[in-house]
Structure formats: C-alpha cells, structure tokens
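Bug: token stream looks shifted between consecutive jobs. Job 1:
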Amino acid sequence: MSLDPTRGPTGVDDRPLALRLWSSTPIHGARLADAERINGPLAAAFRSLSDADFTRRTHYFGGRYENLYLERHRIPEVAAVLATAERFARAILGWDRGLRCGFWLNAQGPGQSTTPHNHDENDELLSGVYYVQVPPDSGDLVLLDGWFRVHVTPAAGLMLFFPPQLMHQVETNRSGELRLSLAFNFGPADD
C-alpha cells in the first residue's frame, strides 16, 4: 500500500485527513497552508545552526545522529509549524487539557537512512512529522504495521500524525541533497 500526498486529498475544514492501516492504526495527514512561506526560512535557519546550538543528539546510526534537539528560541521559525501541529493534535485526540510538545530535527543527507523505531517511550499520546525540505528520491517514510509495510512518499508541507507505538523508518536518501523534517511527540502536560 502506498500513500502519495502529492496527489491525494488534503485536510478539510482545518482538520487533518484520516487513514486507517490494515490493523486499524489511525494515520492523519494534512498540508500546511502556508508551507512555501515557512519552509524556506526554516531550512535557512537550520543551515545557520552550529553544533553548539543543539542541546542533545540521539540515535547514532550509520555515522550520524538521527535526532537533533534544541531549544525553541534557537530556531523560532518552528513556532508556526508547532502551533499548527498542536491544533491538529488536539483535534485528533479530542484533547482540551494541557498538552506537552517535544520536538527535534531530522537532517538526512545523501546516502543516509533512519532505522526502524517508535516513539513509545514515556506517556506520549500522539507522534508526528512535518516535512520541510524533501528532494525527489530522498526516501519514503515506511510505516511497519504488523505484516504490512506502508510507504508514504513525503512532500514539503506535509504533516503526518500517528500513534507513538507504530514502528517506522525512513528509506535511504538517494538524492544529492539534504532532506529535512521536524518530528514531534505530544503528551499530557505536567501539572
């Protein structure tokens, strides 16, 4: 099964589109309306960061850290993306209480991939990804749903949400350019 968001429907009435995988795992997707305005400055801000800007790096595989963490004030361009992600997360979850959002960047250069993993580490309720820069042939997101492998061809401006326990990976970037995404987890806010 494949989902190509460049040819599929978009979120309607400011709500993300829902898709169910074979095991009834819910996947939600939407396009950010002003992605073209946001993505250029966001990618430029990422390129201007130095190693000292990152507070933490995790998941060292294949010669790179898959997850790059930093404080929001280091890259204020993420604010619009995270605000939209939170609005969608609240709608998907039906959540009206405090919601915590953790985020990180995934910069996947040519020849790099992201290993199979999930985000079921703490009390996360929902995970997601937003695509900032996606060169052609830079690797599908592969959702590992029981016996099935569901390929999602990413596109700049696409935002996907899925359960934190869903295993997933990213195929090898076969382009000659950097692929950049912003990933996030939502959980109940600490009281």
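Job 2, same session, no restart:
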Amino acid sequence: MKLLTFRPPRARSGHFGVLLAGNRVLDITALTGRKLPATLLECIEDGDAALAAVKSAADEAEAALERSEQLPQAFALDAVTVAPPLRPGKIMAVGRNYADHVAEGVGQAYTRVAGFIKLSSCVVGHGATVRKPAWTETFDYENELAIVIGRTCSDVAPEAAYDSVFGYTIMNDLSCRDVQYAERKEGNICIGKNFPTAAPLGPWIVTKDEIPDPHNLRVVTRINGEVRQDGNTSQQIQKIPAQIAWYSRAGFEPGDVISSGTPAGTATGYKGPGTWYLQHGDRIECEIEKIGMLVNTVSTRKVRA
C-alpha cells in the first residue's frame, strides 16, 4: 500500500489516507463505524493489526469504486494537498554511500556506516516550496531512498534488520555545500544540512511488502526536466541491514527514518560549463522506482517573520 498524509479540499488539518487505483485517495480519517488508526504514525505504532484494518478498508473502497458506487471519502489525488507522510522523531542520514558519488569529489568512502543527523523541523512535503538560504550559492539536491522504521528497537542484528522496517519513501537531502564543507573541516556537519525546508519527504510511504528488494530500485533526479542523477540502490556501499544495525545503537522509535545516501549527478560533482547548483524557480523531481516522484520548487524569497 501507499500511505499518505493529505489535506482534503476545504480541510484545515491533515488526514490519513491510502492511494487507490486511478490516483484516488481514500480518507481513512473520515471513515466512521470501524476501528482504524487516525494518523499514519498511529498506523505504524499500532503494528500489523492496524495495517491489516487499513488494507481491508482500502480493498472495500476499491471494490466499491469498481462498481461505480459513490464514495464521499475518496478524492482525486490532484484535488488534495499532499503533506509530509509524517514528521520523524529523528532522521539518520548515511553519507558517501555510492562509489560514483564519492568519485565526484566528496571525499573518500567511509569504511562503515557514517553520516549525520537531519532535524525533523526541516521536513516538508511533496509540492512544497523549498527555500534557498541567502547565505549560500551552492544549494544542492540529493535524491535518497528513505527507510521508515516500524517499531521501537535498539542494537538490531543485521540479519534481523528488515523486521524493523515499515516501508520506504523518498527524501531530498538538500545541502548548502559551502557551509557543509567548512563545517566538515571542523569535525561536524550541522547547518550545511539543517535549515528550513532542507528535507522534502514523500510523497507517501510504500509498505515493505510492495518492495521485497530495496536494493534494486532506479533513482532518477530531474532539474527542470533535465536528468541529473540516474543510479540504482544496488550501487549502495553500505547496505540497508548494515545501516539499520549501526544507527539502531542510538535507539529507534516507530516513524524514525534512515536516509540511505545518493548516487552521482549532484551539482557539487558537475565539472561542465555553468553551474548545476539550484536557483530560484528550479523544479526538482526526485523519482525512485516502485515509490513515485517527490516534486518541489526552489524559491529565494524570504518568509515574512
């Protein structure tokens, strides 16, 4: 299933939904008379029983729509506002995890899982405007497979890692390279990866049963329609079980996210004429096979205080 958080027409708050066939969204929050999770995070927290109840409701809705029945709890996808699927408690990001990205000049590959923490306050959803900070001229994109954790756990063994996975989504690890590289020389990466709108996430979470092999997914990024990144998760150096095992030492809770690294094709690695760094008005399309496409537009306009 593809599970999302969205705002129906004229609604002021987010609802929990399921993407149905024909790009229709079933509003799980609006269904009455049955025990269903109220939010996507609650669905993750409540485990297999909650997920089974949501699937049953989705199957019934699909059958009703096939019979051409009116279903007031179903909306066309283009009629709703897609929000971030959830706001993770923490985002653990993996750095230098594709050899071709390392070869772009970002340094040497790590000998184990390593990276940085992305703040949940940076999260925005599909369709949101992302804001290029005024203090950088090296605003870069990174299309990444994001692993959504499904249970409270710590010190997970690699061979049991997938038992802790709820599903997968897309994260665009937006980066200010000049600040990131300056910080790295001092020992930590912080502001170069953490600023308002730095973590577009979505457009939905795909449950793990629909992606039996997360290490065989094409990863494509387009800027204004031009392909910049075109890789595959099979190229990851540190695989998902190793990522989960290492970062679980910090302890995981349901809804936490691991962002698993990006392939070559980032602006920082571009050696041709002009620049690939993001500019005002650029449209970023981050697409991952079996998940979908996360789309955001860049703005340099300041948000009024």
